[in-house]
Design brief:
6-stranded parallel β-sheet, single chain, Isoleucyl-tRNA Synthetase, domain 2, Rossmann fold, alpha/beta, 3 domains, elongated, 6-stranded mixed β-sheet, Isoleucyl-tRNA Synthetase, Domain 1
């Protein structure tokens, strides 16, 4: 009886960190190596990492290992974003503010680095952070170049403004939520009539500078009990229903009538500015599904109003950056409190017609969860409508993006649209912790570049007594693109499509006039049971140390890769049960293979047809896995591994157990089945390397111990022959026919496919045929010469019944 030996255990060696360094040194690369560079989008150094960051790192780590298998060196890095508001808020503003920020950042970088190394990721080419003096000086160098090319401009434009941090925001820092708010119908006096104006922001009425109308629209003069009201004919029934008007239509007006007509605002007695008359303006983009056909225009509180109005006259703004009103009467009153005062005022004067509840999308700051407004302020922008040889820069960028591969494909559509509809990019922020920004002083910028190279950018705040704006965080992190100009691959979360992806693409294009990006991959988030995203601001996650106490890092990686990362992954402690089950089934499968592989005769190997069929199936399985790996379908790859294990268990293991346990130790049947085990293990070693790191190392030890036995033999083993021939996907199995005599002539002439053919034992119509390029070939069975397209079968064949002549009594027994 040949009982299995206990070489391989179910439990893996899951805490040996030194394995990472050993495996990197063991890889053999050819002379012609293609270098790729996997750029790590820097996370904020403002707290401990959560499982969402680990999802990002595991996807990157598996891709590095997949490239290793194909002799492609994929270099990676670790980066940290060290500037920005989260770090500023965690430190008090005092004399030692910059030192305390630096200490805080260094402390958190150490914690995050330990968290990442606990998961045993490897091949990190270098580490960087945006706080380094060399990095900051490079930032000034790039900024100086953009200033010289006149791509950067300064202008007073309404921008997104956070009320809590009193600073400008980018489009990537906005959340849209549906809320219940109020819309107001207000009447404004025009000659003897009253025009109904509609607005959702009552506080913006103080910045009113005109009223918009449509010239082609027909307007109604509606006679109510006391007054004449003017509104759009298109919205007649809607306005009457909301305002509950009682009366009749008095007359009609065409929109052209309001050209160059003036009106007086109801705040004319309170604020001096409104003593002058204001004009009506035609706006063709007016939405007739909302309001009353007239909309009040506040250019300092809206981008569309500003784009239409800024060429007309000077634009005023009646509140400061902290959103307090500057006028003498309402001085230092918050705009939201002012809206309550104004509501009482217009209600008392009977100017308000209706306060109507509306459900609509509103903008919120993603960090503070507070509402956002548009505020008119001087900011520094990068011009994306910059012309180059009669073409706009953003059109050239969109054209270059066609060459880049995207996964999933719909990201391409989103990224193109975001760049196309973006006219400029605001790179200045009104904060303290960051790299200070200058404008229209190129000599000073070069001076700051040299100083920051040795002392860091924070010394500029001590040299300059004036308060300075700082660079946007996305501008900081986009400069990490300039470290290597090789083929770059980017893998980040879905939220970076409008953030880091855009900033990298724009700045990289302005410097090199090309995109050095090969692949852009995006993944979704890890969410809790309630569907909320795991984030540092909400603190709805467990620390990685607590998770690693319960589960090993290999099982956590397996759980993350089992799911489709293009969709949200629900992270829960109970959900690890499925990953544990798959891991145990795989370990049991390998345990059976390894423990039963002993007393294998490396000299004489004769393979049975059923064993050849199993080998052919493993070849097909290997090709499918390779396709799935390079199409980034890791979850489908794990599914196919599970299916293959169940297939082998049902077909191969059920038939092989009697052969392994009951036959003689060096019999032909047992030897052929052992060869299949060896072949499956060799294929699994390659397949499991990207996914299961520790199991790969254990298989590596198994093969290294067996290789010593093989090298002692004088003859070259079949396994080494097999490895030599599989470089061109060619497989040769040793047999009795013509192999020894024709070895020199024929070895170079095999085709890429090897198939099996047998009349009675033909599983799934597989054929095992060797094709030769020689014009004539002599067969010992028929004793005839074969022409070009004929084939020689590797098994002896009887002409009468076309069944294989069995070479051994044991083989006959097996088939019976």
């Amino acid at each position: 009886m040949n009982f299995p030996k206990k070489k391989y255990l179910i439990k893996a060696n899951l805490k040996n960190i030194n394995l990472v360094k050993k495996t990197i040194n063991n890889f053999f690369f050819d002379k012609k190596i293609v270098f790729f560079f996997l750029l790590d989008g820097p996370p904020f150094a403002n707290g401990e990492l959560h499982i969402g960051h680990i999802l990002n790192k595991t996807i990157k780590n598996t891709l590095i290992k997949i490239f290793f298998l194909k002799n492609l060196l994929l270099l990676s890095n670790l980066g940290w974003d060290c500037h920005g508001l989260p770090i500023e808020q965690s430190n008090r503003i005092n004399n030692l503010f910059f030192l305390s920020c630096r200490k805080f950042v260094c402390k958190i970088i150490k914690i995050q680095k330990i968290n990442i190394l606990n998961f045993n990721y490897f091949n990190y080419f270098y580490c960087y952070n945006t706080m380094e003096p060399k990095y900051e000086s490079l930032q000034y160098k790039i900024y100086n170049f953009l200033l010289l090319k006149k791509i950067i401009f300064k202008e007073k434009i309404p921008i997104l403004w956070c009320l809590k941090c009193c600073s400008s925001l980018s489009y990537s820092e906005i959340l849209y939520k549906k809320i219940n708010s109020f819309s107001f119908y207000i009447k404004i006096k025009f000659l003897k009539y009253f025009i109904i104006v509609w607005t959702t922001t009552l506080w913006s009425i103080i910045n009113n500078q005109s009223v918009f109308f449509l010239k082609n629209q027909i307007y109604i003069i509606y006679k109510s009990k006391k007054e004449f009201l003017i509104f759009s004919n298109f919205l007649l029934y809607k306005v009457i229903k909301i305002l509950k008007l009682k009366g009749k239509i008095f007359s009609f007006l065409k929109g052209i009538y309001f050209f160059n007509k003036k009106y007086f605002f109801f705040l004319k007695k309170i604020i001096y500015y409104f003593n002058k008359s204001l004009f009506f303006y035609n706006n063709n983009y007016l939405d007739l599904t909302l309001g009353s056909g007239f909309i009040h225009c506040a250019p300092s509180n809206g981008v569309e109003d500003f784009d239409f109005y800024y060429k007309k006259t000077k634009i005023y703004n009646f509140y400061n950056r902290r959103c307090f009103i500057k006028n003498n009467i309402f001085k230092n009153i918050n705009i939201f409190f002012f809206s309550k005062i104004l509501f009482k005022f217009i209600k008392k004067r009977k100017i308000l017609l209706k306060k109507h509840q509306v459900n609509h999308n509103s903008m919120f700051c993603w960090r503070h969860k507070k509402p956002i407004i548009y505020y008119l302020s001087n900011q520094i922008f990068i011009n994306l409508n910059f012309d180059y040889k009669k073409y706009k820069i953003k059109d050239i960028i969109i054209n270059k993006l066609k060459k880049v591969k995207f996964y999933p494909n719909f990201i391409k559509f989103f990224l193109k649209n975001m760049i196309f509809f973006r006219n400029n990019w605001c790179i200045s922020r009104q904060r303290y912790w960051g790299v200070p920004i200058l404008y229209n002083n190129i000599n000073k910028v070069s001076y700051y570049k040299n100083i920051s190279k040795s002392f860091g950018s924070q010394i500029i705040f001590y040299i300059n007594k004036k308060k300075m704006d700082i660079f946007d965080v996305w501008f900081d992190s986009a400069i990490s693109f300039f470290f290597l100009n090789n083929n770059k691959i980017i893998i980040e979360g879905k939220d970076q499509i409008r953030g880091w992806y855009q900033s990298c693409i724009i700045i990289n294009f302005f410097i090199f006039f090309n995109l050095n990006i090969e692949i852009i991959i995006s993944h979704n988030f890890c969410i809790d049971n309630y569907g909320n995203k795991l984030s540092k601001s909400s603190k709805n996650f467990k620390t990685l140390d607590n998770i690693l106490k319960i589960n090993s890092d290999e099982i956590i990686k397996l759980y993350l890769l089992e799911h489709d990362f293009t969709k949200n992954i629900v992270f829960n402690e109970k959900s690890f049960l499925s990953a544990n089950y798959t891991y145990v089934t795989l370990r049991n499968f390998l345990k059976f293979l390894v423990n039963n592989f002993y007393k294998f005769n490396f000299k004489n190997v004769k393979i049975l047809i059923f064993d050849l069929w199993v080998i052919n199936k493993t070849n097909k399985f290997n090709k499918i896995i390779e396709k799935l790996y390079f199409s980034f379908n890791y979850y489908n790859a794990i599914k196919t591994i599970k299916l293959f294990i169940s297939f082998i268990n049902n077909t191969f293991f059920s038939r092989i157990k009697n052969v392994l346990y009951l036959n003689k130790s060096y019999s032909i049947i047992r030897n052929s089945s052992l060869f299949v085990i060896l072949y499956i293990l060799s294929q699994f070693k390659k397949i499991l390397f990207p996914l299961f790191f520790y199991t790969y190392n254990e298989l590596e030890k198994f093969f290294s111990s067996n290789n010593k036995k093989i090298t002692k033999k004088k003859n070259i083993s079949l396994f080494f022959k097999f490895n030599q021939l599989t470089k061109n996907n060619v497989i040769l199995y040793k047999n009795n026919i013509l192999i020894k005599k024709l070895k020199k002539d024929i070895l170079c002439t095999f085709k890429k496919e090897v198939l099996i053919n047998n009349f009675f034992w033909n599983w799934n119509k597989n054929q095992f045929v060797i094709n030769f390029k020689k014009k004539f070939f002599f067969c010992k069975i028929s004793k005839e010469f074969f022409i070009k397209k004929n084939y020689c079968l590797t098994k002896l064949i009887c002409k009468s019944c076309l069944i294989n002549l069995f070479s051994n009594y044991e083989e006959v027994k097996f088939y019976v």
